[in-house]
Amino acid sequence: MKRTLLFLSGLALIVSCSAPKYTYNFDHYNYNGGKKKAPANETVVLNEGPQSIQPEMLTASAAIETAPIAPLAETKTTPVKKTYAQMDKTERKQLRSYLKAEVKHSVNAKKATAEASAAKGMDGDLKLAVIFGAVGIVGLIIGGDVFYIIGGIALLIGVVFFVKWVIRQ
Length: 169
Known about the structure:
The chain is built from four helices and no strands. The chain is mainly alpha-helical. α3 packs antiparallel against α4.
């Protein structure tokens, strides 16, 4: 029985490792493979900027004439924000009080989420670790070939969930 199980698991390992389905393209991935390509017959028209065209200037003729281009309108500039060193005392005081209020708000939000999670009881991973650990220990206590295997696997899964829970803490 043990020889057959060992032979089948070894055969499965050899067959799964020798399959070339995923190995020959392991180091190469086509990042643009799923993207749509633009049709070749479309032309892209670049706009040089806003220009005002007078409607009376738009006439159809066979002669080659250039239409006059109106000058671009001046754009309004937005004021540059001051740095902390450029602010006066009242602005600095307002900024500090605003930052203190934001920090307190974020700390209170973190405390509320921590208290809510503590009130819920045990974490999901910790619950799974306890369940699998108990099943594993019971399986090892009962004994027998099948229960040793089931107990060992369950205990191993319980340890994995416990490590996941410890890492998150």
